[in-house]
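$ fold --in a.seq
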Amino acid sequence: MAGRRLREAVKETLTSNGNGEFDDETHVVIAGLTNTYSQYIATFEEYKQQRYEAASTLYGPHTLSAYIQEFNKLAKAMAQGENIVPKGPSPPDLSSVQLKLLLDPFGDSPPPGVNFGDVKQDIHPPKGGSFNKGDRASATFWSPTPRYDLLTEGTYAVVEMLQRERWVPAYDDDDFSLFFKWGVDNSTFYGSATIEWELPEDASPGVYRLRHFGSTKKTKDSPNTYFTGASSAFTVS
């Protein structure tokens, strides 16, 4: 019901401010963020009942009204061709009061004589020296726990292709063919990351390499330092 009321309100705002660009056939779709952005958004009536969804509506009984108010502002600006809408208040940052049952990383170091990002186990081409579609290429890098930075706007692993003397990203963690595995050697307690690439049927022939990205800290309170490493080049036929 909350979604229905929001769609109807936005549609009404668009049709009444769009100079004929929008009409009764306009279809409004809610494509919203999920996973604890603002939890549930119950109607005012449902909020008073305090069942599951209403009890998880974090910002009170008028949450839906606030959403409708702000989306109507955006819809009106869109319909009238306005380029700038004043930024409203941001939701509170509650990360400092959230319970954490998993301890933060406390600082890692690589084995003596190596750096994070150095290759621990390089690519081993198959007999004949070239990989074929369906083969799996893998390389392992010295690497600390990935939890120092989740790289949500980046990636831990990339397959790069050599094009005109430049390495260009061809596959990353958006692709089901690429696997990133991290673990600790129980005897030495040093961490390593393995990148595996299962060559898809649409992979173009050429020269490739596997590249790893990561970060670490010298101590718990020191800033993150970032590193990268790359495997040897290999060919795909």
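$ fold --in b.seq
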Amino acid sequence: MDVGHDNPSGDGEHWASLAILIKAWGKALGFDEIGISDVDLSASEAGLAAWVEAGFHGQMDYMYKHGAKRTRPDELIPGTLRVISARMSYLGQGEDPAAVLADAGKAYVSRYALGRDYHKVLRARLQGLARQIAEAGPVATRVFVDSAPVMEVALAEKAGLGWRGKHSLLLSREAGSFFFLGEIYTDLPLPPDPPVSAHCGQCTACIDACPTGAIVAPYRVDARRCVSYLTIELRDAIPEDLRPLIGNRIYGCDDCQLVCPWNRFARLSSVQDFTPRNGLDAAGLVELFSWDKSTFEARMAGSPIYRIGFECWSRNLAVALGNARGEPGVIEALEARVDDPSPLVREHVAWALGQHHPRAC
């Protein structure tokens, strides 16, 4: 089938047929759903600007440094007419997350980070889809997986893959929210898919469950209070008033998703790369804190966790150990690193020990 641009852009039947093919190719590559949207994100510009103006982005300067390119795909990649959005579930078989959160001696890692780095997994498959499209005729494409100023939730919402929940994540009636999103920008005039209606209703479960109160209003998250931001994006000391609220969450947080009624329909991933590695679905805090830098780098190679580095990994674990009062081996583990080479780690270790021995501080 020739899909070159010599075909008239007004030939709706032709482009509709191609869109059906693209979705079939995407399913064959392991994506759960493919949707197509136009590039008009003007309705999202004011909200993004207000969010940044309020300082809710914290240290995530990349949220504004690209200017309008985030909300204008055709300025990021000139010539872009459509965005192909792809959804892929990441839930793997593993320990019950609620049980891990309830065990102060265990380390909770966000479910998306238990397996291989999703950037690599999705990018490879999206590139494969882009190649299939290109083999059918001349086309310009560009693949993105959380790697550029792309409003992936807004685009996926426009493409009919779901609606934005009150926790600001995309929700699907068929799959909940435990999935990754990726995009292909293209100059093909494909027919956009219609958006779906929202189904949160009066539910506020996600807002009520946030351990740090980061969801300050429906659809509005103050990243500076979000556990995911504090344990992944923040490179400085975690604010002391928030440390006790973090509990045993050492990398990310899923609380708002775990309580969402729609995640009753979340699907286990068929992608082996997302199977939990290194026992991280229920590892002990003391064990993980005993790792040295070389062990961390060897074990976390190919994991999204690798990018935060050993220092922030140790900082996060120290906070969780400070919250693990009465757990065996915790004080000994912390005392073993009171003279850690990193000032950041030393400060958090001292704080953690102070939680176990208040008078010693």
